[in-house]
Amino acid sequence: MGAGDQYQTIKDLNVMGGTESVSLEHVEGEVWMIDFWATWCPPCQAPMQHNCDMLTKRAADWEKSVRIIGLSIDSDMKTLEGHIEKKGWNQVEHFWRSKSSCSEVYSVSGVPHVMIIDK
């Protein structure tokens, strides 16, 4: 996959606090920023804080048209949940990669790695 390619649904993710696998189905016209990141990655921390700040600042403008999605490559969800709670980063929609092949599909070889979907 590369710039300009059609979005392929990301499958086999876990949503925070959940145990069932979910998929990220894109809705045409909705702008997504998917931020592949990890709790142990120092260069990922400031951008995630910025994502939360942007969502807080632009909440009214972006309510139904922009989503910022954090997609963690951490080895377990418990670490991810603890980190997000400690930092107060609840504005971003967080998912854990779990058993998903999304890193391979989207050629994610390191973090941070950001994708913009639509518009």
Describe the structure.
The chain has one domain: Glutaredoxin (3-Layer(aba) Sandwich), CATH 3.40.30.10. It is 29% helix and 28% strand. It has 4 helices and 6 strands. It has a 6-stranded mixed β-sheet, with helices on one face. Helix 3 links the parallel strand 4 and strand 5. The model has no long low-confidence stretch (mean pLDDT 93).
Summarize the structure.
This protein is α/β, with parallel strands linked by helices and 119 residues long. It has four helices and six strands. The chain has helices at 42-57, 59-62, 77-87, 102-105, and strands at residues 10-15, 21-24, 31-37, 66-72, 93-96, 113-117.
- Order of helix and strand elements from N to C terminus: EEEHHEHEHE
pLDDT average, as an integer? 93
CATH homologous superfamily (4th level) name: Glutaredoxin
CATH architecture: 3-Layer(aba) Sandwich
